[in-house]
Specification:
With about 600 residues, this protein is α+β, with helices and mostly antiparallel strands. It has 14 helices and 28 strands. The protein has a 15-stranded antiparallel beta sheet that branches. Strand 2 and strand 3 (about 25-30) form a beta hairpin. Helix 8 runs antiparallel to helix 9 (about 425-445). The longest helix is centred in the last third of the chain and has 20 residues, at about 400-420. The chain is globular. The relative contact order is 0.11.
């Protein structure tokens, strides 16, 4: 049986991440960065595309697993007829090279353990040359090199294009494996001590998670979400990737398979709000700084997403040798949506920097001048149709959410001038722009007969992004049009107590065949909107359902199939975990994020 998305747990070192299955197999790992080619790609293919399994010989899925409290260190345990054993997985904070550390410990009896390592560089397409050197097994292919060792050394041999080890452990005995990657033209990096790495990782993660200021219900879920966001952060730049994976399907067997290993601007305000409200100012400032660097340049060239360091070119291509997760083809790397026009990102940038300024984050040079240039671009360009925040590939339209976010951009600029005397700008002109956009959206984007805003001008379709109208301040929560929109979205896009992004059944705006699951971030937005309109009991019931969707170690993907009871889409998804944190803060916290 093919694994389910929720069968996986995440480990990482804040530069890349690995997915570990319930069977003890690492099925996804890109080295040295999140967006590098995978050396373990079984997740999107089969065993011959690369994986590393450590488990009791003959055993299947584990008996139990859990993260050590407040950490990204994963313990997986098996109980067998021979006895019991634990495998502890982590990726310690790197100094020079990325390391994957796997510690096997006997818990009782005498257990025979098997390790099977199949390294396949370049997304499972390249079988490396293997050799022995200095007590290591060394794999080399092109630019990639990986060194495997165990402490103590155990019986290891090569067979069927894989590296195999077999050994026994009794109670208290340990065997540690370390896999280290480095560029093949460079010498082997210094060795790490696996046991010291484990100790330091636990200590460092627990110290970090203890800083969380949230003390309300479901604190464990909030802390796990924050740890996940930290794990999805590319430490050198502060950029946060949308997910650790590419091409996990939004519908099993479908074609909605995209690469999410990049940084999206649509997440920026909600991300900053979550980090600031929970006490993580350093991470919030790093994200703000990444944003300022990434968007620098001609405002006409503002992109919806960037690479980990702000790279702009993310060419999309398909990998035909990979069969896809559960047969879901094509497998894609890169993302052509980077070329789209999405006017909402201008509002996201302005809103994020406005929030940063109100929160007291230190100003960056030329930040306000950059914001002023963005506003001047919008003044002449806001009437254009665009692809909208969902990156539709069915043609441009006048999406209501995009226009609302243009209003947000103008509104935040006006408020900045009204609040900070040191700033200068065209206050009257920006007020006029704000008023004009507001008037047009209310005239063209609102269906008076149904008392709801619509997905785009003149349409009858709805969009879950409309739930953000009260949150961004476009209209107050008690406005009848807001209440009507919330009810309409829940009625027309609701599915088994959750919310879809938009309709994909009739005249889909995205121009793609097939369907998708309910969108978890949008479902959190519904909970927020219900709470803002006084329906807190319903909001809390929805929040409880959403927390219940998380897998056994607290992770959420992008979407969910409530009929099959399974997660869908790339995993773990920053957008979903940001939603969980912000909704918990709104419902139970002392202050509202954002």
């Amino acid at each position: 049986m093919h694994p389910r998305i929720e069968d996986y747990a995440l480990i990482g070192d804040e530069q890349t991440a690995a997915l570990v299955g319930l069977d003890g197999s690492v099925d996804w790992l890109c080295l040295p960065r999140f967006d590098s080619a995978a050396c373990f790609a079984k997740l999107l293919g089969d065993e011959d595309n690369g994986h590393w399994r450590i488990a009791p010989k003959g055993a299947d899925r584990c008996t139990r697993r859990a993260y050590r409290p407040g950490t990204l260190v994963l313990d997986t345990e098996w109980e067998t007829a021979e006895g019991s054993v634990r495998v502890t997985d982590l990726m310690p904070q790197r100094h020079r090279a990325p390391d994957l550390v796997r510690v096997v410990e006997g818990l009782g009896g005498r257990v025979t353990v098997r390790s099977t390592l199949r390294l396949r560089f370049d997304y499972g397409s390249v079988v490396p040359w293997m050799r022995r050197a200095d007590g290591h097994r060394v794999a080399v292919a092109g630019p990639d090199s990986a060194w495997l060792r165990s402490e103590p050394e155990v019986h290891t041999w090569g067979e069927a294009f894989g590296t195999h080890s077999e050994f026994t452990v009794e109670e208290g005995e340990k065997v540690a494996f370390v896999l280290t990657w480095h560029p093949s033209h460079e010498p082997r990096p210094p060795l790490v001590d696996p046991y010291e790495s484990l100790e330091h990782s636990v200590t460092d993660w627990q110290a970090w998670s203890a800083r969380c200021r949230y003390e309300g219900p479901h604190r464990d879920a909030v802390v796990r979400s924050l740890i996940t966001l930290k794990a999805l952060t590319y430490g050198p730049t502060g950029g946060i990737v949308a997910a650790a994976t590419t091409s996990l399907p939004e519908e099993l067997g479908g074609v909605r398979n995209w690469d999410y290993r990049y940084c999206w601007l649509r997440d920026s305000t909600l991300t900053l709000g979550a980090l600031l409200s929970c006490g993580y100012q350093e991470e919030a400032e790093a994200w703000r700084n990444w944003l300022v660097r990434a968007v620098a340049g001609d405002p006409a060239d503002l992109q919806i997403m960037y690479g980990l360091a702000g790279e702009r070119r993310l060419p999309e291509l398909e990998l035909p040798w990979l069969s896809g997760f559960a047969g879901s083809r094509p497998v894609r790397i890169g993302n052509e949506a980077v070329k789209q026009l999405q006017l909402d990102v201008y509002g996201e940038v302005m809103d994020t920097l406005s929030l940063a300024r109100r929160a007291g984050l230190p100003a960056k040079p030329h930040m306000w001048s950059m914001q002023s240039v963005l506003l001047e671009f919008l003044r002449s360009s806001w009437r254009q149709p665009d692809e909208g925040l969902w990156e539709v590939r069915g043609g441009r339209r006048h999406f209501v959410h995009s226009k609302v976010m243009v209003w947000v951009a103008a509104d935040r600029a006006v408020r900045a001038l009204e609040s900070y005397s040191a700033l200068s700008g065209d206050l009257d002109g920006w007020r006029a722009l704000r008023d004009e956009v507001h008037r047009e959206v209310c005239e063209k984007g609102y269906d008076a007969d149904r008392n709801t805003f619509t997905q785009y001008y003149g349409s009858r379709e709805l969009d879950a992004a409309l739930l953000l109208i009260p949150r961004v301040g476009f209209l107050p929560p008690d406005d009848p049009r807001v209440v009507g929109t919330i009810d309409a979205v829940r009625d027309e896009l609701g599915h088994s107590g959750f919310v879809r992004r938009y309709s994909v059944e009739e005249s889909p705006v995205d121009g793609l065949p097939g369907g998708e699951g309910v969108f978890l971030a949008c479902s959190f937005w519904l909970a927020d909107a219900l709470h803002m309109t006084g329906r807190t009991k319903e909001a809390r019931e929805l929040f409880e359902r959403l927390v219940g969707v998380a897998n056994d170690v607290g992770l959420l993907s992008e979407e969910y199939d409530p009929v099959a009871g399974m997660q869908l889409g790339n995993f773990p998804q920053a957008f979903s975990h940001i939603g969980l944190v912000n909704t918990a803060l709104a419902l139970f916290g002392d202050e509202r994020a954002g």
